[in-house]
Amino acid sequence: MLTLVTGAAGFIGSLLVERLLADRRAVVGIDCFRDYYDPAAKRNNIAASLRDPLFTLLEADLSGDFEPALQGCIPHGERVTVYHLAAQPGVRRSWGANFGDYVRDNVTATQKLLEWASESGCVTRFVNASSSSVYGASPQTPLSEAGSLPAPVSPYGVTKLAAEHLVGLYSGRSGIPSVSFRFFTVYGPRQRPDMAFHRFILAVLRGEPVQVLDDGRQTRDFTFVSDVVEGLYRAGDSPVCGVYNLGGGNRVTLLEAVGEIENATGAKAILSFAPAQPGDARDTLADTTRLERDLGWKPGVPLQEGIRRETEWIRAAYGL
Ligand code: NAD
Ligand code: UGA
Questions:
Q1: Which atom of ligand 2 lies closest to the CA of 212?
Q2: What is the CATH number of the domain that holds 74?
Q3: Does residue 138 sit within a domain?
Q4: CA nearest to 138, candidates 128, 129, 150, 126
Q5: Rounded to whole angstroms, what are the CA distances from 98 to 93, 94, 154, 269?
């Protein structure tokens, strides 16, 4: 049994790879080291895993001709579980000329991977990373898979919803059991440098202004990355199919989160407010009843502890 992880050098992907290797699973990772943020950070994420003989890294672009190289990494007759995490993330940047990157990495790449999965005959399970951004500005929270109509308010959300639909469509055609997880704002060690907590903690530690978009009273259901990895890990071995919310149960306003960052750093935040950005949902909160029922999963890391761990990591990563 082999596990394929796309986006293996990214924030969430690299931690999933470590979790699988810790369980002595053979893993093939794919990443093309996009420069959306410093590829050196991604090399760093994957460095320890590269020393493990059970790990193979394929540097390939899923929107290009990756299929022959990938097939070469899979021994004949091997069964493969796919975790598809490769994507162009970032909600606010997805407008204008950048949209092409989102279509390429979230739609075209997903469709090509699904074609390969259907044709190769070796894939027995497909787990896809989707996003709370598919819900958009739904007026009612908590957001539930059956009760909340997806209506993205960012081009990024549109591409993630398209990817979800492709996963469902190909699953129906190929018979490969598939699941899409809608992650809610993930944070923790290795968090992408464009995301709020990474920027806020760094700014507070450096004594620089924290740029709060909008009035800071918007809410997010922040999810610690080990809870995401645990949900993904369990889904690899379970029969769950369809769409599942994966949210941390840590819904707070941004200003409350800044308060936790002040506690964790022992420093005062200097707040600077900027206008709301197009594409941002005002509030998110996951109803995770389905996931708890079907996978026995529950979020385990409260916000205070998660921010403390991310702060520790940022201190070490930046030498602060
Ligand atoms: P990330 O940018 O750290 O990781 C994604 C990785 O995919 C990167 O290393 C990138 O180089 C790689 N990649 C992109 N396009 C590729 C392609 N065409 N071929 C091969 N590799 C490619 O992002 P992340 O925050 O770890 O997100 C992982 C997944 O989770 C994404 O699908 C994202 O949409 C989803 N997600 C993330 C969050 C969050 O809060 N971080 C929330 C919801 C959903
Ligand atoms: C995050 C990820 O970046 C997306 O890839 C993912 O799909 C999405 O979660 C999701 O849950 O689906 P976002 O919620 O915007 O998107 O996460 P952050 O970038 O951490 O932003 C959280 C909040 O902080 C937002 O309200 C944003 O407007 C605000 N923010 C962000 C600031 O006030 N200042 C900043 O410098 C950055």
A1: 33
A2: 3.40.50.720
A3: yes
A4: 150
A5: 7, 6, 12, 32
pTM here is: 0.98
Q: Whose CA is nearest to atom 34 of ligand 1?
A: 89
For 81-126, what is each residue's pLDDT tens digit?
Answer: 999 999 999 999 999 999 999 999 999 999 999 999 999 999 999 9
Look-up of token digits 């990474």? 198
Reported as a single tens digit per residue, the pLDDT across 236-280 is 989 999 999 999 987 999 999 999 999 999 999 999 999 999 999
> Is residue 143 in some structural domain?
yes
For 138, residues 6+ apart whose C-beta sits below 8 A from its C-beta are 148, 149, 151, 281
Q: Please tell me if the CB atom of residue 252 comes closer than 6 angstroms to any atom of ligand 2.
A: no
Catalytic residue list contains 156: yes
Q: Show the tokens assigned to 137.
A: 């500005």
Total domains in the fold of the chain: 1
Instruction: For residue 94, give its domain range.
Output: 2-186+223-248+285-300
Mutational test site, ligand 1, from 111, 183, 243, 246, max ligand atoms within 8 Å of CB: 183
Q: Is residue 56 included in any domain, yes or no?
A: yes
Is 201 a domain residue?
no
The CB density around residue 23, as the number of other CB atoms within 10 Å, is 12
Tokens linked to 204: 């507070």
